[in-house]
Amino acid sequence: MKPMLKALILLSAALATSSFIPTTPSLLKQTRPGLVLDAKSKSKNAGGGGGFGNGGGFGGGKSENNKPKTRTVSGFTGSGTKALRNAANTFDDIRKQYGKDATSDLYMRSPLNDKDTFWFVGKVVRRMDLNDKNMEGSSVPTEFEAVLSQKRLIIEYAKNELRPQNFGGPYSKELEVWLAPGDSEMEVVTNKVSLVKVAGSASDISDSFAVADVGFNPEIYVGDEMKEGGLRVVRDEDGKPVKPVFEING
């Protein structure tokens, strides 16, 4: 693990479990408002975030192009299952081509477990050019469609593999997924970025969308993270930081 990443994870743990307030606040403003984006209030191709209350029951609906719109998942999704491998491999391919501008960071919260703590659970990515020869849909996916189409996979992985103690069992009834800009872990930890709640359902995905145009890269714990947990942050009900912006020196 890179030293900076390890330090960031340790810092996020300290901030999430203590009343520590940084002594070097910054004048930088938050880069995103605390919004709830509901796909149902958007146009058909606007995408949206996922109704994550019960974990969803996604099948493999087809688009107008006769392409699957969602990743089919049945029950427990371990780290070696086909759906997760396909999602991760697709993520790698798209990420190499489009970079962080096509990427969104994922956080999950269980209000029944800890309403203030948001755990980093991975990233999604999407193709962004209709002229891309590998594009299978007939529209550019939105970041919300990238989540909705893989919602069940994301949730099953997080609650069974990554954080069962926070997302599994009695805590799995009201799981929420929140978004941050791609590769913004540092900005999120230092309270410069608010999280955006995803709301909606698979029915809000455009008929021109194809799930092959998006990928999911799951967070994987290594080393000390196996025992102590990984990146997490404290936010309010709107996804906004509850403490001042600060800088990490060095």
TrEMBL record:
Alphabetically ordered keywords of this record: Signal
KW Signal (keyword) present: yes
Ranges annotated as biased composition (Gly residues): 46-62
Signal peptide interval: 1-19
Sequence segments annotated as region (Disordered): 41-78
Name of the featured protein: Plastid lipid-associated protein/fibrillin conserved domain-containing protein
